[in-house]
Structure formats: structure tokens, C-alpha cells
Amino acid sequence: MSIMLFLRQIWLFSQVELSRLWLTRRGLMTLAATAVIWFVLLRYAIAPASEIMQEPNFQKTLTAAFGMLGLHQLLNWPAPELTLYWMLSLILLPLLSLVFTANQLSSDAARGTLRFISLRSSRSAIVLGRFCGQLLVQLCLIVLSLAATLTLSSLRLGAIDWQAIEAALLISCNLLIVLMPFTALMAVFSAWARSSRLALSLAIVSLGLTFGLLSWLIHHQPAASFLLQYMPGAQIWQLIPTQGWQSLQLAVVPLAQTAVLLLIAQQILSRRAL
Amino acid sequence: MTTQPIIKVSQLAKSYGRNKVLNKISFEVNKGETVALIGQNGAGKTTLFSLLCGYIKADSGSMQLLGQQPGSAALFGKVSALPQDAQLDPAFSIGQQLSFYGQLQGLSAQLARTETLRVLALVDLEQHYHTKAGALSHGMRKRACMAQAFIGSPALILLDEPTAGLDPANALHIRELISDLSQHASFLISSHNIFELERLCNKVLYLQDGKLQQHHAHAANSEACLSLQLSAAANSAEVCQQLQQLAGITDVTAGRNHEYQLSYQPQAADDFDIRLLQCLAANGWQYKQLTKGKSLEQQLFAQKKAAHV
């Protein structure tokens, strides 16, 4: 198969996933669920907390308490709303990503739809296309929630802050990279499991077990602590206090994790009976 | 000049656990042939289909479709299939999905839409372009699934139970459609409906206990046989007695529903069928059906039935 047809097929699969978000009942439910989650967070957490973060006493306390950890850097974001969005989304979105991307392949395989598709496309293109589609869908959700956060900030300031928009762009890029290994992990489990529910359960159990085993190993062999950095999302705690485009330096590990996980997903789907 | 077979299977084996579903089967299908795949439940028909489509891997043996391995990228758009029980995504309209399949095959968005309308028209579903697959009846979903197999111009079309679950009118329509399309593509059709396969196919693959028991064109041994069905009024003992008098006849067997199997020596009586009709007319027996050769059902199962007796 020519590389052009391969890339075209990946784009076609991605378009289908976007259509699934905007034009199907299930996709609209996902949008509604995201809107509700972010409305609650913006209205009852980010908006009041932004007011508190403006107070000099709070800023002094934060610097004194967490200065060693670099968390005082959080105060350098152009808008406190973005600071809170950044912290919340780094913790929340990977979890939501596991849920929202659990059905990349399993339903189609169980229904037999993959049999129609596999006569027209390689299994590698199916895995990559669905993965890219899910990333685009998540990018849409991130952009929408960031737009709501920026609107909240603009309403408080009474003006649009262009620095905040640039920061929002940086946040989008970073969040997308953070979500990549989680989305690829769900590609692995959805290539293997017969249903999205089973794929999600397997992912949660696997992550929990791996983390538990690593913790036990590190407890007995502290030298093995370096293994923790290879867990999906391990860079999140380092990302929280980072600022500016230099934060993308932490992208190497998640990108490598994504490549490895996608290769595993491709191998599983290639060997799977359809 | 010899042409390369469109399907070439050699010593193909597939087991599930200890159950040998296919036991070193070999066969070839040539371009332009419409081939029937027959066998009892569990005989391995769907397994063979899945192997040919590249859905599963064989334990041993080799397969080639149009000179390529099943699942090869070179076969995209050239081999299509109606797999058993496969369904379209219920969240999208059938038009959207078939257009998407067309685009995956390399058609532009506009061409894929035109092609989708063409294949939906073939199965009388052009009015349902915008209907979601989940909103269609079982029979309509089946026809939509069949339509996807006709997108583009596939050289080989594999159909697993194409008319199962269809009402008689639509089943007839699908049979006529396959008959028309078989002028341009080779078909491998799996079905339990022997009469359907008899009308459509010129070659039979009969799978039994994982082996290819019979493999022949069903017209091959039909020269000296006639199948006769009379109206209810005739007495079967009397009919047999009268038919035995015909010159060149070697055997008369009475079956159920006033059916008779006649064997004769064609070289001894080349006007045998004419004299048979004269005999029927002389005795005032109305015939319902007179067919040259044994039916496919008789060819396939008479031997087995005889073995059981």
C-alpha cells in the first residue's frame, strides 16, 4: 500500500471519529458530559479559587510553603484561571481519557464492522487512524474547555489578555502530549478486549497493579525508583510547576511511550481473529 | 495459455483446540466461476471464508487470492465479502458508511457517494441513504451489508449466507443480482439453500468433517439421468412399471411427492426424453417438472443416504 493511501486512510478514520463526536448521539452525550464537568469546575472551583489566588497573602503563603518544590511558579501564569485549569486538567483529563477512548476498536470488532473495514485497509492504518481520531476529539474537548476558561478570565478582567491566549495554546499542546500515552494504552486494551467496558476495567486494573508492584519493588530496591518515570503520566508532577514552551522538553517520554503502546496495539490487532 | 486461478488453496488446515475444522483441503477457483460452498453446520464453511478474507490465520497450508496472500494490501478493493453476522455501525447512516468504505478503497468523496448510490440501488435501498443502520430491519441491514461488497469493481466476491433472513421476494432479487454480476466477477457463495446454489453456481465445494468431500462441476455426470415429478393422480407402482418398459432405461427409483429418478443409456436411446413424454401422455399422467440430470441435492446426499441404509 502506498504511503499516500496509508496517510489518507488515517485521515479518513480520524474524520469518522470527529463525526462520531459531533453528529452521533453518543458523541453529543460525551460533549454534554464534558460540558457539565467543566461547568461545575469553572463555576464552583476555578472562579472562586481565582479570586483567592489574587490575594497577596495567599501568594506569600504558597511561595513560603511550596517554594522548594517550585509550585510558586504557578503564580506566573497570565491568569489565575489558567493556573487552576492547568492543575485540574493535568490530573483529571488522563482519567477522563481512559473512559472516553476505551472504545477505539472493541465495539467494531465485536459487531463485525472491522471485517468490512479490514478488506479495505491495513490493520496498522485502523489502529493509527482511530488513535489520531481520538486525539482530535480530545483536542476539541480541550479547546472548548479552555475557551470557557479564557471567557471566565476575560469576564473578570473585562478585556482579552493575549498572553493568556498564548498560554492556552501551550496548555493545549502539553495536554495533548500528556493524553497520548493514555489514549495509546486504551488502543492496546480495546484491540484486545471484546467490549469497551472490559477494556476500561483492564486498563485501570493493569495501571493499578503495575503501580503497586513498582511501589513494592522500590520499597525493597530503592535503586529501581527510576522505573516510575516510565509509567504513563509520570511526567505530570514535573509538568505542574513548569512554564512556557520549555515544558515541551518533558514530551520525550510520553511520545516514546505512545509509540511503544501503538506498536503493541498494532501487533495485537494483527494477530486478533476478526 | 493457462490462466492463473483466482483462488488457489493448498493443504489448508485450521484447528480450534483439538477440533480439526479444516483438514488439509486443496482446491482452485478459476476466473469467471461461481462456486458454491456447501456443508453441514460446523463443517468449516465460515472458517474457510474467514481464512480467505484474512480474518484468521491458518495453522498450515497456503492460500492465494489473485496471486496474493489473504489480507494483503494488493487485494484492497479487488476482493470483497459479505461475512456472516457482521453488522454496520448503527450510529451512522448506511450511505455515510458505504461512502467511507469507498473512500478507503481509494475513491474520491464524490465518486464514493455516487458509487454508494449505485450499489444501494442494486439492493433496492437507494431511498435509505440517510437511514442509520440501527434503524433498518434485519433484511434491509443484510442487503446494506451486501451492497458494501459490490463497491468498486471487485474481481472476487465472497458471500456467506447471502439470502439467509431475507423474505422470498428479496431473496429472489439477490439471486438475480448475483447471477447478473457473475458476468463480471467470480463468486464464492456459502449457503444451506441447495436449490439457490444449484441455480447460481457452476462449481461445488462440499465440506464435510473438515475435508473437501466432493469437488466438481455439477453438470458433469448428468447425461444419463432424468428427474421427473408427476401430479398427484399417478400411482407410483404403475408409473415405475410403465417407465421400466422404455427402451434404454437402466433404473427407475420412486421418491416422495411423486418424484422419480430415471437412469438410462444415452447412446442406446438418444430420443429417450421424447419417448418418456409420449409414455406420460399415453397414460394420461401430467408432469410438474422434468429435469435433465440429478439435482445437486441428490448428487451430494444420495451417496451418503445410501451409505446410511
TrEMBL record, chain A:
Signal sequence residues: none
Pfam families: ABC2_membrane_2
TM spans (from-to): 28-46, 83-106, 127-148, 168-191, 198-218, 247-265
Highest taxon of source: Bacteria
GO cellular component, one term: plasma membrane
This protein's UniProt keywords: Membrane, Transmembrane, Transmembrane helix
Recorded GO MF terms: ABC-type transporter activity
Name of the featured protein: ABC transporter
Species per Swiss-Prot/TrEMBL record: Arsukibacterium ikkense
UniProtKB/TrEMBL annotation, chain B:
ABC transporter domain residues: 7-234
Domain of life: Bacteria
Alphabetical UniProt keywords: ATP-binding, Nucleotide-binding, Transport
Protein name, as recorded: ABC transporter
A Pfam family hit: ABC_tran
InterPro entries reported for this sequence: AAA+_ATPase (IPR003593), ABC_transporter-like_ATP-bd (IPR003439), ABC_transporter-like_CS (IPR017871), ABC_Transporter_VariousFunc (IPR051782), P-loop_NTPase (IPR027417)
GO molecular function: ATP binding; ATP hydrolysis activity
Organism, scientific name: Arsukibacterium ikkense
